[in-house]
Recover the amino acids of this structure.
């Protein structure tokens, strides 16, 4: 896959997703983009001076999670609908989606092997009880873009229990928690990992790696509530493209609450698919679904 390719989801990728519960997208970002995202990440870190100083002085630094990055920096906007991965998001989730959260994570090497991320699923206790269906749209997923290499184990790797996305999450005292096999995923700067809310995941210790830098875009169906904002302020909206604005829940005029279930705005598909994905043969079925809904649904008025 070339950097920036518009690739949708191949049958092979869909089968891998169904079986393992994640996708690795190699080379999603071009080299110059990696440089720019590293620069924007370093700016965020520099603003959190106290922790940055701790890192420089050789004391074991605490990992940093910058939540709501869209509101702290304009350096990550292009990740909302990045052409290297967005076609896959559309194929998995359909076009009635929004961005629920934007994070940047910085994980420092710690010789002690201490990790600040335990095994979990995303979205809290309610979503933990909802499991995906192979034929259905994905409820929520995250795309994690890596700006640094994670080429070996114990470099703060994003780690998963393959196939766990279809199983109920075991609680601390559950006996079936024993023998859980984690897979530490290896990837290069510029790669992205896509995974649904229900996949059991964690970060591995970073005992031998460099400082791991990445950003996460969390997508949900349009009717899901955002995680790190109520309404996006106009200063942020005005720097976004029309598609990015829609992805953060913006409608022209006053949206009706119903719009979040099935937008009455006839432009939803044109806005979200844009020139890049409107003719994608993998996504034709989405347009048919929308036409059918417009003709037959009483839900949307
Ligand atoms: O790769 C990581 O740092 C773990 C990310 C994570 O656990 C999450 O996004 O929920």
């Amino acid at each position: 896959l070339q950097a920036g390719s518009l690739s949708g989801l191949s049958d092979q990728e869909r089968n891998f997703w169904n079986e393992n519960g994640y996708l690795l997208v190699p080379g999603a970002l071009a080299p110059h983009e990696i440089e720019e995202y590293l620069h924007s990440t370093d700016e965020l870190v520099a603003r959190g001076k106290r922790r940055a100083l701790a890192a420089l002085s050789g004391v074991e630094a605490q990992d940093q999670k910058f939540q709501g990055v869209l509101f702290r920096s304009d350096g990550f906007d292009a990740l909302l609908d990045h052409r290297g991965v967005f076609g896959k998001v559309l194929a998995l989730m359909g076009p009635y989606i929004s961005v629920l959260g934007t994070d940047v994570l910085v994980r420092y090497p710690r010789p002690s092997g201490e990790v600040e991320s335990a095994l979990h699923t995303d979205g809290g206790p309610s979503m933990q009880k909802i499991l995906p269906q192979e034929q259905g749209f994905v409820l929520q997923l995250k795309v994690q873009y890596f700006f640094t290499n994670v080429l070996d184990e114990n470099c703060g790797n994003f780690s998963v229990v393959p196939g766990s996305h279809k199983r109920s999450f075991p609680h601390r005292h559950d006996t079936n928690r024993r023998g859980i096999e984690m897979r530490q995923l290896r990837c290069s700067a510029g790669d992205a990992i896509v995974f649904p809310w229900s996949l059991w995941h964690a970060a591995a210790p970073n005992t031998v790696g460099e400082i791991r830098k990445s950003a996460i875009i969390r997508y949900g169906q349009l009717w899901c509530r955002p995680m790190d904002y109520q309404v996006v302020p106009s200063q942020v909206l005005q720097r976004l493209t029309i598609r990015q604005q829609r992805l953060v829940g913006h409608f022209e005029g006053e949206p009706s609450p119903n719009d979040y279930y099935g937008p009455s705005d006839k432009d939803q598909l044109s806005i979200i698919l844009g020139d890049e994905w409107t003719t994608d043969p993998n996504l034709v079925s989405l347009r048919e679904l929308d036409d059918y809904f417009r003709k037959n649904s009483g839900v949307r008025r």
